[in-house]
Design goal:
The protein is an alpha+beta fold. The chain is built from nine helices and 18 strands. Helix content is about 25%, strand content about 25%. The longest helix has 21 residues, at about 240-260. The two termini are about 25 Å apart.
Length: about 425
Protein backbone atom coordinates (compact mmCIF):
# COMPACT_ATOMS: atom_id res chain seq x y z
CA UNK A 1 0.00 0.00 0.00
CA UNK A 2 2.99 2.28 0.41
CA UNK A 3 2.02 5.86 1.35
CA UNK A 4 -1.68 4.98 1.54
CA UNK A 5 -1.14 2.43 4.32
CA UNK A 6 -1.61 5.17 6.92
CA UNK A 7 -5.08 6.63 7.23
CA UNK A 8 -5.74 10.10 5.89
CA UNK A 9 -3.68 9.90 2.71
CA UNK A 10 -4.61 9.50 -0.92
CA UNK A 11 -2.21 9.00 -3.79
CA UNK A 12 -1.91 8.45 -7.50
CA UNK A 13 0.70 7.60 -10.10
CA UNK A 14 0.18 8.45 -13.76
CA UNK A 15 2.01 8.55 -17.09
CA UNK A 16 2.44 12.23 -17.90
CA UNK A 17 4.91 11.96 -20.76
CA UNK A 18 7.86 13.29 -18.75
CA UNK A 19 9.97 10.15 -18.95
CA UNK A 20 11.72 9.12 -22.18
CA UNK A 21 10.24 5.65 -21.63
CA UNK A 22 6.96 5.66 -23.46
CA UNK A 23 3.96 4.84 -21.31
CA UNK A 24 5.92 4.76 -18.03
CA UNK A 25 4.21 6.15 -14.95
CA UNK A 26 6.34 9.20 -14.18
CA UNK A 27 4.31 11.50 -11.94
CA UNK A 28 3.05 10.79 -8.42
CA UNK A 29 0.82 12.84 -6.17
CA UNK A 30 0.38 12.27 -2.43
CA UNK A 31 -2.25 14.30 -0.58
CA UNK A 32 -2.66 14.60 3.18
CA UNK A 33 -6.39 14.75 3.90
CA UNK A 34 -5.90 15.59 7.56
CA UNK A 35 -7.09 16.52 10.04
CA UNK A 36 -3.42 17.40 10.67
CA UNK A 37 -0.89 18.52 8.07
CA UNK A 38 2.31 18.25 10.12
CA UNK A 39 5.50 17.69 8.16
CA UNK A 40 9.25 17.27 8.45
CA UNK A 41 11.98 16.92 5.87
CA UNK A 42 15.65 16.37 5.20
CA UNK A 43 17.37 17.27 1.95
CA UNK A 44 20.59 16.88 0.01
CA UNK A 45 23.63 18.86 1.18
CA UNK A 46 24.87 19.15 -2.42
CA UNK A 47 25.65 22.78 -3.21
CA UNK A 48 24.11 22.33 -6.65
CA UNK A 49 20.76 21.40 -5.11
CA UNK A 50 17.89 21.25 -7.59
CA UNK A 51 15.10 23.78 -7.94
CA UNK A 52 12.48 21.49 -6.31
CA UNK A 53 14.78 21.03 -3.32
CA UNK A 54 15.13 24.79 -2.95
CA UNK A 55 11.35 25.17 -3.11
CA UNK A 56 10.49 22.28 -0.81
CA UNK A 57 12.94 23.37 1.88
CA UNK A 58 10.95 26.59 2.17
CA UNK A 59 7.66 24.70 2.19
CA UNK A 60 8.69 22.34 5.00
CA UNK A 61 10.23 25.11 7.11
CA UNK A 62 6.93 25.95 8.82
CA UNK A 63 6.14 22.30 9.58
CA UNK A 64 3.07 22.07 7.33
CA UNK A 65 2.61 20.19 4.04
CA UNK A 66 -0.73 19.27 2.49
CA UNK A 67 0.57 17.55 -0.63
CA UNK A 68 3.71 16.50 -2.45
CA UNK A 69 4.06 16.03 -6.20
CA UNK A 70 6.94 13.96 -7.50
CA UNK A 71 8.18 13.28 -11.01
CA UNK A 72 10.74 10.97 -12.57
CA UNK A 73 12.24 11.60 -15.99
CA UNK A 74 13.91 14.92 -15.17
CA UNK A 75 15.74 16.37 -12.19
CA UNK A 76 15.15 20.08 -12.89
CA UNK A 77 18.61 20.67 -11.42
CA UNK A 78 21.11 23.31 -12.58
CA UNK A 79 18.29 25.02 -14.48
CA UNK A 80 18.50 28.45 -12.86
CA UNK A 81 15.58 30.79 -12.37
CA UNK A 82 13.56 29.09 -15.09
CA UNK A 83 13.79 25.78 -13.26
CA UNK A 84 12.75 27.34 -9.97
CA UNK A 85 9.78 28.95 -11.72
CA UNK A 86 8.75 25.49 -12.91
CA UNK A 87 8.71 24.19 -9.35
CA UNK A 88 6.63 27.17 -8.25
CA UNK A 89 4.19 26.69 -11.13
CA UNK A 90 3.85 23.02 -10.28
CA UNK A 91 3.09 23.80 -6.63
CA UNK A 92 0.58 26.45 -7.66
CA UNK A 93 -1.24 24.02 -9.94
CA UNK A 94 -1.50 21.33 -7.25
CA UNK A 95 -2.55 23.90 -4.66
CA UNK A 96 -5.38 25.03 -6.92
CA UNK A 97 -6.53 21.46 -7.41
CA UNK A 98 -6.67 20.58 -3.71
CA UNK A 99 -7.75 23.97 -2.35
CA UNK A 100 -4.50 24.81 -0.57
CA UNK A 101 -1.81 27.45 -0.75
CA UNK A 102 1.26 26.88 -2.96
CA UNK A 103 3.52 27.03 0.09
CA UNK A 104 1.71 23.95 1.42
CA UNK A 105 2.83 21.83 -1.58
CA UNK A 106 6.24 20.19 -1.76
CA UNK A 107 7.78 19.37 -5.13
CA UNK A 108 10.27 16.57 -5.89
CA UNK A 109 12.01 15.63 -9.13
CA UNK A 110 14.49 12.98 -10.23
CA UNK A 111 16.20 12.26 -13.52
CA UNK A 112 18.67 13.92 -15.86
CA UNK A 113 20.47 17.01 -14.54
CA UNK A 114 20.69 20.21 -16.56
CA UNK A 115 17.42 20.19 -18.48
CA UNK A 116 14.11 21.89 -17.82
CA UNK A 117 11.05 19.72 -17.41
CA UNK A 118 8.34 19.57 -20.10
CA UNK A 119 6.17 21.81 -17.92
CA UNK A 120 2.97 21.39 -19.92
CA UNK A 121 3.22 17.63 -19.40
CA UNK A 122 3.92 18.08 -15.69
CA UNK A 123 0.92 20.34 -15.14
CA UNK A 124 -1.40 18.16 -17.22
CA UNK A 125 -0.09 15.15 -15.31
CA UNK A 126 -0.85 16.88 -12.01
CA UNK A 127 -4.47 17.26 -13.09
CA UNK A 128 -4.66 13.62 -14.18
CA UNK A 129 -3.13 12.50 -10.90
CA UNK A 130 -5.61 14.60 -8.95
CA UNK A 131 -8.48 12.93 -10.78
CA UNK A 132 -6.99 9.51 -10.00
CA UNK A 133 -6.41 10.13 -6.29
CA UNK A 134 -7.48 7.25 -4.07
CA UNK A 135 -6.70 5.89 -0.61
CA UNK A 136 -6.31 2.36 -1.94
CA UNK A 137 -3.39 -0.05 -1.99
CA UNK A 138 -3.35 0.14 -5.79
CA UNK A 139 -3.04 3.93 -5.71
CA UNK A 140 -0.10 3.70 -3.32
CA UNK A 141 1.55 1.13 -5.57
CA UNK A 142 1.04 3.34 -8.62
CA UNK A 143 2.73 6.23 -6.83
CA UNK A 144 5.71 4.08 -5.87
CA UNK A 145 6.14 3.00 -9.50
CA UNK A 146 5.90 6.56 -10.80
CA UNK A 147 8.98 7.76 -8.91
CA UNK A 148 11.24 4.95 -10.18
CA UNK A 149 14.10 5.68 -12.59
CA UNK A 150 16.75 2.95 -12.91
CA UNK A 151 15.10 1.07 -10.04
CA UNK A 152 14.16 -2.48 -10.91
CA UNK A 153 11.34 -2.62 -8.38
CA UNK A 154 9.32 -0.32 -6.10
CA UNK A 155 10.54 0.07 -2.54
CA UNK A 156 7.91 0.45 0.17
CA UNK A 157 7.38 -0.07 3.89
CA UNK A 158 4.37 -0.58 6.15
CA UNK A 159 4.56 -0.61 9.96
CA UNK A 160 1.93 -0.58 12.71
CA UNK A 161 2.33 0.81 16.21
CA UNK A 162 1.34 -1.13 19.30
CA UNK A 163 -2.00 0.66 19.62
CA UNK A 164 -2.91 0.72 15.94
CA UNK A 165 -1.42 3.85 14.40
CA UNK A 166 0.45 3.29 11.15
CA UNK A 167 3.46 4.33 9.09
CA UNK A 168 3.72 3.80 5.35
CA UNK A 169 6.34 4.91 2.89
CA UNK A 170 7.99 4.72 -0.52
CA UNK A 171 11.43 5.51 -1.84
CA UNK A 172 13.24 5.46 -5.15
CA UNK A 173 16.97 4.95 -5.46
CA UNK A 174 19.32 2.62 -7.28
CA UNK A 175 22.33 4.57 -8.55
CA UNK A 176 24.19 7.77 -7.69
CA UNK A 177 23.98 6.74 -4.06
CA UNK A 178 26.41 8.23 -1.54
CA UNK A 179 26.33 9.90 1.85
CA UNK A 180 24.77 12.17 2.72
CA UNK A 181 21.44 10.69 1.62
CA UNK A 182 21.31 9.00 -1.77
CA UNK A 183 19.82 9.69 -5.19
CA UNK A 184 16.47 9.24 -3.63
CA UNK A 185 13.01 10.63 -3.24
CA UNK A 186 11.22 9.36 -0.18
CA UNK A 187 7.78 10.03 1.26
CA UNK A 188 6.83 8.53 4.62
CA UNK A 189 3.31 8.94 5.96
CA UNK A 190 1.77 8.37 9.38
CA UNK A 191 -1.71 8.70 10.79
CA UNK A 192 -0.37 9.30 14.30
CA UNK A 193 -1.10 12.50 16.18
CA UNK A 194 2.38 14.06 16.37
CA UNK A 195 3.84 17.54 16.17
CA UNK A 196 6.10 18.78 13.41
CA UNK A 197 8.87 19.31 15.94
CA UNK A 198 8.75 15.72 17.14
CA UNK A 199 8.66 14.51 13.56
CA UNK A 200 11.68 16.58 12.54
CA UNK A 201 13.70 15.31 15.48
CA UNK A 202 12.76 11.70 14.75
CA UNK A 203 13.43 11.99 11.02
CA UNK A 204 16.79 13.70 11.46
CA UNK A 205 18.05 10.87 13.67
CA UNK A 206 16.54 8.17 11.48
CA UNK A 207 18.00 9.60 8.28
CA UNK A 208 21.43 10.05 9.82
CA UNK A 209 21.49 6.39 10.79
CA UNK A 210 20.11 5.00 7.52
CA UNK A 211 19.88 7.09 4.35
CA UNK A 212 23.00 9.06 5.25
CA UNK A 213 24.95 5.81 5.50
CA UNK A 214 24.32 4.17 2.16
CA UNK A 215 26.75 4.43 -0.72
CA UNK A 216 26.36 2.71 -4.07
CA UNK A 217 28.82 4.51 -6.29
CA UNK A 218 30.33 7.39 -4.32
CA UNK A 219 28.27 10.07 -6.08
CA UNK A 220 26.06 12.57 -4.23
CA UNK A 221 22.80 13.64 -5.82
CA UNK A 222 21.39 17.13 -6.31
CA UNK A 223 17.78 16.17 -5.60
CA UNK A 224 17.65 14.01 -2.45
CA UNK A 225 14.49 14.60 -0.45
CA UNK A 226 12.95 12.73 2.47
CA UNK A 227 9.55 13.90 3.69
CA UNK A 228 7.60 12.70 6.73
CA UNK A 229 3.92 13.67 6.75
CA UNK A 230 1.37 13.19 9.54
CA UNK A 231 -2.41 13.24 9.07
CA UNK A 232 -3.46 12.50 12.66
CA UNK A 233 -6.34 10.49 11.16
CA UNK A 234 -5.96 7.63 13.63
CA UNK A 235 -6.63 9.97 16.54
CA UNK A 236 -3.86 8.18 18.43
CA UNK A 237 -0.99 10.01 20.09
CA UNK A 238 1.81 7.44 20.13
CA UNK A 239 4.41 6.85 22.77
CA UNK A 240 7.31 9.11 21.80
CA UNK A 241 9.93 6.39 21.99
CA UNK A 242 7.83 4.01 19.95
CA UNK A 243 7.20 6.67 17.32
CA UNK A 244 10.91 7.39 17.04
CA UNK A 245 11.60 3.66 16.81
CA UNK A 246 9.14 3.05 13.99
CA UNK A 247 10.37 6.05 12.01
CA UNK A 248 13.86 4.62 12.30
CA UNK A 249 12.64 1.17 11.29
CA UNK A 250 10.90 2.64 8.25
CA UNK A 251 14.02 4.51 7.14
CA UNK A 252 16.21 1.48 7.82
CA UNK A 253 13.98 -0.77 5.72
CA UNK A 254 13.79 1.66 2.82
CA UNK A 255 17.53 2.36 2.82
CA UNK A 256 18.27 -1.36 2.93
CA UNK A 257 15.99 -1.87 -0.07
CA UNK A 258 17.98 0.76 -1.99
CA UNK A 259 21.18 -1.19 -1.39
CA UNK A 260 19.50 -4.41 -2.46
CA UNK A 261 18.58 -2.77 -5.77
CA UNK A 262 21.93 -1.06 -6.39
CA UNK A 263 22.79 -0.69 -10.06
CA UNK A 264 24.81 -3.69 -11.23
CA UNK A 265 25.17 -5.17 -7.75
CA UNK A 266 25.70 -8.89 -7.26
CA UNK A 267 26.62 -8.73 -3.56
CA UNK A 268 25.51 -6.71 -0.56
CA UNK A 269 28.27 -6.22 2.00
CA UNK A 270 27.62 -5.55 5.66
CA UNK A 271 30.68 -4.00 7.29
CA UNK A 272 30.60 -4.04 11.08
CA UNK A 273 33.22 -2.10 13.05
CA UNK A 274 33.57 -2.69 16.78
CA UNK A 275 36.17 -1.91 19.42
CA UNK A 276 36.54 1.75 18.40
CA UNK A 277 37.08 4.63 20.81
CA UNK A 278 33.92 6.39 19.62
CA UNK A 279 31.02 6.07 17.20
CA UNK A 280 32.62 8.67 14.92
CA UNK A 281 35.86 6.69 14.88
CA UNK A 282 34.05 3.47 14.01
CA UNK A 283 32.05 5.19 11.29
CA UNK A 284 35.17 6.73 9.74
CA UNK A 285 36.77 3.30 9.56
CA UNK A 286 33.65 1.74 8.10
CA UNK A 287 33.35 4.46 5.46
CA UNK A 288 37.00 4.05 4.46
CA UNK A 289 36.50 0.35 3.82
CA UNK A 290 33.12 0.87 2.13
CA UNK A 291 34.66 3.37 -0.30
CA UNK A 292 37.25 0.91 -1.62
CA UNK A 293 36.59 0.09 -5.26
CA UNK A 294 39.31 -2.55 -5.07
CA UNK A 295 37.45 -4.29 -2.26
CA UNK A 296 34.17 -4.13 -4.12
CA UNK A 297 35.81 -5.62 -7.20
CA UNK A 298 37.25 -8.41 -5.07
CA UNK A 299 33.87 -9.20 -3.52
CA UNK A 300 32.27 -9.11 -6.94
CA UNK A 301 34.76 -11.81 -7.92
CA UNK A 302 33.98 -13.80 -4.73
CA UNK A 303 37.44 -13.05 -3.33
CA UNK A 304 37.52 -12.25 0.43
CA UNK A 305 40.69 -10.18 0.02
CA UNK A 306 41.38 -9.00 3.57
CA UNK A 307 44.44 -7.05 2.43
CA UNK A 308 42.16 -4.61 0.66
CA UNK A 309 40.15 -4.24 3.86
CA UNK A 310 43.05 -3.41 6.15
CA UNK A 311 44.80 -1.21 3.58
CA UNK A 312 41.67 0.95 3.39
CA UNK A 313 41.32 0.87 7.16
CA UNK A 314 44.88 2.17 7.41
CA UNK A 315 44.02 5.37 5.56
CA UNK A 316 42.02 6.69 8.51
CA UNK A 317 44.18 9.23 10.42
CA UNK A 318 45.09 8.18 13.98
CA UNK A 319 43.62 11.37 15.39
CA UNK A 320 40.27 10.35 13.88
CA UNK A 321 40.38 6.67 14.88
CA UNK A 322 43.20 5.66 17.21
CA UNK A 323 43.96 1.92 17.20
CA UNK A 324 46.91 -0.46 17.13
CA UNK A 325 47.12 -2.18 13.72
CA UNK A 326 48.74 -5.18 15.43
CA UNK A 327 45.53 -5.83 17.36
CA UNK A 328 42.98 -5.57 14.51
CA UNK A 329 40.99 -8.64 13.48
CA UNK A 330 38.85 -9.13 10.37
CA UNK A 331 36.20 -11.81 9.88
CA UNK A 332 34.47 -12.42 6.55
CA UNK A 333 31.28 -14.46 6.72
CA UNK A 334 32.33 -15.73 10.13
CA UNK A 335 35.87 -16.79 9.19
CA UNK A 336 38.74 -14.89 10.86
CA UNK A 337 41.08 -14.33 7.92
CA UNK A 338 43.04 -11.51 9.59
CA UNK A 339 44.32 -12.02 13.14
CA UNK A 340 46.22 -9.31 15.03
CA UNK A 341 46.98 -7.37 11.86
CA UNK A 342 48.28 -10.40 9.95
CA UNK A 343 47.09 -13.49 8.16
CA UNK A 344 44.56 -15.66 9.95
CA UNK A 345 42.70 -18.66 8.57
CA UNK A 346 43.03 -19.37 4.87
CA UNK A 347 40.59 -17.23 2.91
CA UNK A 348 39.61 -20.28 0.85
CA UNK A 349 37.56 -21.31 3.90
CA UNK A 350 35.18 -18.38 3.38
CA UNK A 351 31.88 -19.21 1.72
CA UNK A 352 31.28 -16.35 -0.74
CA UNK A 353 28.19 -17.80 -2.42
CA UNK A 354 25.55 -15.81 -0.44
CA UNK A 355 24.58 -12.43 -1.89
CA UNK A 356 25.07 -10.83 1.53
CA UNK A 357 28.68 -10.75 2.71
CA UNK A 358 29.50 -9.86 6.32
CA UNK A 359 32.80 -8.13 7.08
CA UNK A 360 33.39 -7.79 10.83
CA UNK A 361 36.28 -5.56 11.91
CA UNK A 362 37.36 -5.37 15.55
CA UNK A 363 39.79 -2.56 16.36
CA UNK A 364 40.29 -3.95 19.87
CA UNK A 365 41.02 -0.60 21.50
CA UNK A 366 39.64 -1.83 24.82
CA UNK A 367 37.27 1.13 24.95
CA UNK A 368 34.49 0.92 27.50
CA UNK A 369 32.40 3.46 25.59
CA UNK A 370 28.69 2.70 25.54
CA UNK A 371 26.40 2.93 22.50
CA UNK A 372 24.28 6.07 22.19
CA UNK A 373 20.82 5.86 23.67
CA UNK A 374 17.92 5.18 21.37
CA UNK A 375 15.71 2.43 19.98
CA UNK A 376 17.03 -0.48 17.97
CA UNK A 377 16.50 -0.43 14.23
CA UNK A 378 15.23 -3.77 13.02
CA UNK A 379 14.90 -3.48 9.22
CA UNK A 380 11.82 -5.28 8.00
CA UNK A 381 11.54 -7.49 4.95
CA UNK A 382 15.32 -7.83 4.58
CA UNK A 383 17.83 -10.56 5.22
CA UNK A 384 19.99 -8.27 7.31
CA UNK A 385 20.70 -9.61 10.77
CA UNK A 386 20.95 -7.28 13.74
CA UNK A 387 24.35 -7.63 15.42
CA UNK A 388 24.64 -7.56 19.19
CA UNK A 389 26.50 -4.82 20.99
CA UNK A 390 29.30 -5.89 23.29
CA UNK A 391 29.58 -3.85 26.46
CA UNK A 392 33.11 -2.73 25.67
CA UNK A 393 32.44 -1.92 22.02
CA UNK A 394 31.36 1.37 20.48
CA UNK A 395 28.91 0.84 17.65
CA UNK A 396 28.61 2.46 14.25
CA UNK A 397 27.35 1.08 10.97
CA UNK A 398 27.55 0.92 7.17
CA UNK A 399 26.18 -1.12 4.28
CA UNK A 400 27.95 -1.84 0.95
CA UNK A 401 27.10 -3.71 -2.26
CA UNK A 402 29.37 -4.97 -5.01
CA UNK A 403 28.96 -6.13 -8.58
CA UNK A 404 30.04 -5.48 -12.12
CA UNK A 405 29.09 -1.90 -11.37
CA UNK A 406 30.20 -1.85 -7.75
CA UNK A 407 27.90 -0.34 -5.18
CA UNK A 408 28.10 0.38 -1.50
CA UNK A 409 25.88 1.53 1.31
CA UNK A 410 25.51 2.17 5.03
CA UNK A 411 22.98 1.56 7.79
CA UNK A 412 23.03 2.01 11.55
CA UNK A 413 21.64 0.32 14.62
CA UNK A 414 21.70 2.34 17.82
CA UNK A 415 22.18 -0.79 19.88
CA UNK A 416 24.53 -2.67 17.60
CA UNK A 417 28.02 -2.30 16.16
CA UNK A 418 28.57 -0.19 13.08
CA UNK A 419 27.82 -2.11 9.95
CA UNK A 420 28.40 -1.37 6.25
CA UNK A 421 26.36 -3.18 3.67
Amino acid sequence: MSVTFAQGFSAAGVAAGISSVEGKKDLALVVNNGPLDAAAGVFTSNRFCAAPVQWSRKVVADGHVKAVILNSGGANACTGEAGYAQSVATAETVAGLIGAEPNDVAVCSTGLIGELLPLDNVLAGAKSAHEALAATAEAGTDASHAIMTTDTKPKTVELTGSNGWKIGGMVKGSGMIAPQLATMLCVITTDAVVSAGQMQAALAVAAEHSFNRIDVDGCMSTNDTVLLLASGASGIEPDKDEFNKLVREACASLSRQIIGDGEGASHDIRITVTGATSEDAALACGRAVAASNLLKCAISGNDPNWGRIVSSLGTVPPEVAPYDSNKVTVDVNGVRICENGGAGRDRSEVDMTPREVHIDIDLNTGSDARPPSGPTISPTNTSTSTPTTKADKQPSGLFVAAGSDSVAGVAYNANSPVGCL
